[in-house]
TrEMBL record:
PANTHER family: 2-METHOXY-6-POLYPRENYL-1,4-BENZOQUINOL METHYLASE, MITOCHONDRIAL, METHYLTRANSFERASE
Transmembrane residue ranges: none
Keyword Glycoprotein tagged: no
Domain of life where this protein originates: Bacteria
Keywords: Ubiquinone
Protein name per Swiss-Prot or TrEMBL: Ubiquinone/menaquinone biosynthesis C-methylase UbiE
InterPro entries the UniProt entry points to: Methyltransf_11 (IPR013216), SAM-dependent_MTases_sf (IPR029063)
Methyltransferase type domain span: 51-145
């Protein structure tokens, strides 16, 4: 299991090293409507110390840095962190950059007032370990905001969306369900105090090219979407004309929890 997890994390590092700049400019990551809600949901205060896990292009720390004393941006991939730093450094001097594994954070217990993680946990091989680490480094009363793609509860839809994501991105592990997340939160001592189910529309050409490495890989993703059943096409709002796919819609969960 440990070797398998290490292999997954190596794939994540390879993927994000190659596509670091794409994640900074990605419209999905850089312009999501959730970004403006983050400071409000967390009720950030000027004295707070915040942590963003798997920061990617640094979009979350960009949103929260003006509202806190210090913000730690962490990522497993050096090149991703370096790219985020290059884009953010001219704007904010209170962001500190740390290479870190989300499932084994290099921080002491009860360190942070607020922790965030956005559009990343579907790359984590052991999400339950990640949630326990979040709870460990949070101060009592501290808040954790999770935002990520999720799998529908219906098995057929779950299997489809995870097959689709894996075809497009070899570093994808699994989009987990809300019920799975709730179990891990409870086990870690985190109580969900606010949540919102969201629909996220992807412009297909940009989405599929962000992580694929060949036309052959893109063709496999095309085929899966175009051959989907009517129920699946309707649920994920797959929009196409002929063999050209225009967009699709994925489920996302935005959940705020608190450490008692």
């Amino acid at each position: 299991m440990k070797e398998q997890a290490n292999s997954i994390k190596q794939k994540v590092q390879e993927q994000f090293s190659k596509h670091a700049e794409k994640y900074v400019t990605s419209s999905t990551h850089a312009k999501g409507s959730d970004l403006s809600l983050i400071p409000e949901w967390l009720e950030l205060q000027p004295e707070y110390i915040a942590l963003d896990i798997a920061t990617g292009g640094g979009h979350v720390v960009k949103a929260i840095a003006p509202h806190v004393s210090f913000c730690f941006a962490t990522d497993l991939t050096y090149q991703m962190l370096e790219t985020a730093k290059r884009h953010l450094d001219p704007l904010h001097s209170n962001i500190l950059y740390v290479i870190a594994d989300a499932e084994s954070l290099p921080f002491l217990e009860n360190t942070f007032d607020a922790v965030t993680c956005r559009i990343a946990p579907h790359h984590f091989p052991h999400p339950e370990k990640f949630v326990k680490e979040v709870a460990r480094v949070l101060k009592p009363g501290g808040k954790f905001l999770l935002i990520d793609n999720i799998a529908p509860e219906e098995k057929q839809l779950d299997l489809f969306v995870n097959r689709l994501e894996k075809l497009r991105d070899e570093s994808h592990v699994r989009s987990y369900s809300i019920n799975e997340w709730k179990i891990w939160f409870k086990e870690a001592g985190l109580t969900v105090i606010k949540a919102e189910n969201r629909k996220k529309i992807f412009t297909y050409p940009e989405w599929v090219k962000r992580t694929t490495t060949s036309q052959e890989q893109i063709s496999k993703v095309d085929t899966l979407l175009l051959s989907a059943s009517e129920d699946i096409r309707n649920y994920f709002s797959i929009q196409s004309s002929g063999d050209m796919i225009h967009s699709l819609t994925i489920d996302e969960w935005m959940a705020l929890s608190e450490k008692k």
